[in-house]
Amino acid sequence: MDSRVRLIVGLGNPGPGYAHTRHNAGTDFVHALAERHGATFKLEKKFNAEVATAVIDGHKVYLLIPTTFMNHSGRAIAPLAKFYNIAAPEILVAHDELDLAPGDIRLKLGGGHGGHNGLRDTIQHLGNQRDFARLRIGIGHPGNADDVVDYVLRKGPPDEREHIEDTIDAAIKIIPDVLIGEWNRAMKTLHTQT
C-alpha cells in the first residue's frame, strides 16, 4: 500500500464530558494537527462530523472528527469519503490503542478491528474494506478486561497524559510523509523516536 492520504480521522466520543479521555486520543491528535496547521473545524451535519481542510507541505487533506459516538464512527467517515471520492487506502484513522503503553504510537497499514468498536464500525460502513491506515495511540490497559470500559472513558493522570501528548507531537511531524505515501520513511521515523 503506497497510497497518499487525503483524509485523516480522529476517533472519539462527542461532547465536553469525553474531552481528553483515553478513548478520545484520536480526536486529540486531529485537533492538535489542525491547530498546528491553522485549520478550523466546521460542523457538517450531512457527514455527522466536524470537518476541516488543511494544507500541509502543499498537500490538501480533509480532517474529520465524527460527532457520532465511537461505535458509530463509520456513519461519519463513509459519507464524507464517498462524497469526495476518497478510497479506503487514502484514509488514516487515528485511535486509542489498549495494547500499547502510553508513550507508544504506531502506524499500521490495513488489518482488522482488534476489538475496537470505532474501527469495527468504520470497516462495516466502508463496505468491509480494511485497507485504510491506522495511527494507533497507546493508552495502556487496565489489566482486567472488566475494567476496560471505565478505563477508556476516564482521563489519565498527568504523567500519562504527558506521554500521550508527546507521541501526538511526534506523529504530527511525520504527517508530511504520510500525505505523499512515504509509509516506510514515516514508520521508521515514528517508531524509532517513540
Please describe the structure with a list of short key phrases separated by commas or semicolons:
194 residues; alpha/beta; Rossmann fold; 7-stranded mixed β-sheet; 7 strands; 21% strand
Question: What's the helix and strand layout?
Answer:
Elements: E1 7-10, H1 25-36, E2 42-44, E3 49-56, E4 59-66, H2 74-83, E5 91-97, E6 105-109, H3 117-125, E7 133-138, H4 148-152, H5 158-179, H6 183-193
Parallel strand pairs: 1-4, 1-5, 5-7
Antiparallel strand pairs: 2-3, 3-4, 6-7
Helix pairs in contact: 1-5, 2-3, 5-6
How would you describe what is shown here?
With 194 residues, the protein is α/β, with parallel strands linked by helices. The protein has one domain (7-172, 184-193): Peptidyl-tRNA hydrolase (Rossmann fold). Helices cover 36% and strands 21% of the residues. It is built from six helices and seven strands. A seven-stranded mixed beta sheet has the order 2-3-4-1-5-7-6, sandwiched between helices. The longest helix is centred in the C-terminal third of the chain and has 22 residues, at 158-179. The chain is globular, with a radius of gyration of 15 Å. The mean pLDDT is 94.
